Amino acid sequence: MNHTTSREEELVAEITRLKQERPYLDNLFTSFGPLMLLRQRWVEDKRKEGTTIAIDPLQFSGGITLLQQCRDLLDDDRWHDAGLAAAGAIASGLRELAGDMDFLANRIRGGLDCYAVYRSAVDLKPEELCRKAREIGIQELSLAVFLRCLGRLMLGIKAVEMAPQVASLAWTKGYCPVCGSFPHLAIIRDKGQRWLQCPQCSHEWVFPRMTCPYCEHEEPAGTSYLFVEGKKEEMAYTCDRCQRYLVTTDQSGNLRHTNADLLALSLAHFDMLVQDQGFRPMAECEWNTFAAVD
Asked: 85 Cβ partners below 8 Å, 6+ apart?
């Protein structure tokens, strides 16, 4: 058994366990499990060892991300394969989008440039995204899910490749040093350190435990942690100043390394509870944005 297969099997076992433990989230695990498995497999199979870019440490310490410093960071020959893989995984998990994904996969095989689609559509406003979806020939929701998954694959592999270069550089911001996204999950690890997890590229970085990553509010007043009775290791950090929240899990006593996306998905009930109180997520991800997809 190779390392990649072993990691995939471990993730499948974790998903199965959580489905049994949290049946109220079964639909989310079924829908997004294929995307998690793809992302893990993709990074293991497609990453290129020894990849480097020119990073200005002074700009980096001032909050300028890798993606801002190197505009051609995403110019890559793996977009075609990533597009086909993303369409396949979405079709497997979100069956109501399968028709659009099959159509999109055929367009990609016929020469549709996934990188061009991503660059031209990723920052579009909703009404503009709708027009882009019509141009391609699929639903707006299908395009939105596809773009998110496609970006996660390509940004994720870049983050892994760049990790050795970033490790020794100082970063003090609440947004991701690789791609600039705000976190969707915080993990408390040994010595009480809070590690923030990026929803786009999966890079993680240390950030002060009582500081709001979104607005950098540092005072204890106005921030809090919400818990559910009987689950002291699961919580949601909230900030009254910016009205944002961050689902959080305490893994300080856990020797097993659990997939971060799976940890975030297992806390989806917190997303619903805290959003009902008027707070918004620091970052949107598939399960707190498209949770209504059945």
From this structure: 38, 42, 153
User: What is the rounded CA–CA span in Å between residue 103 and residue 101?
Assistant: 5
CB 27 within 8 A of CB 286: no
Cβ–Cβ under 8 Å, residues 27 and 294? yes
Nearest to 112 by CA among 154, 143, 79: 79
Question: What 3-state class would DSSP assign to 178?
Answer: coil
pLDDT for 61-116, tens place per residue?
A: 999 999 999 877 888 999 999 999 999 999 999 999 999 999 999 999 999 999 99
Q: What residues pair up with 186 in beta bridges, in sequence order?
A: 196, 248
CA distances from 292 to 145, 272, 275, 286, 289 (A): 13, 11, 14, 10, 8
> In the structure encoding, which two tokens stand for residue 250, read together?
């305490």
CA–CA gap between residue 265 and residue 21 (Å, rounded): 13
Read off the pLDDT of residues 188-234 as tens digits, 9 standing for 90 and up.
998 889 999 999 999 999 999 889 999 999 888 889 998 877 788 89
112 by Cβ neighbours in 10 Å (0-12 / 13-18 / 19+) ranks as: middle
State both tokens at 138: 């699929």
- Please state, in angstroms and rounded to a whole number, the distance separating the CA atoms of residues 237 and 8: 30
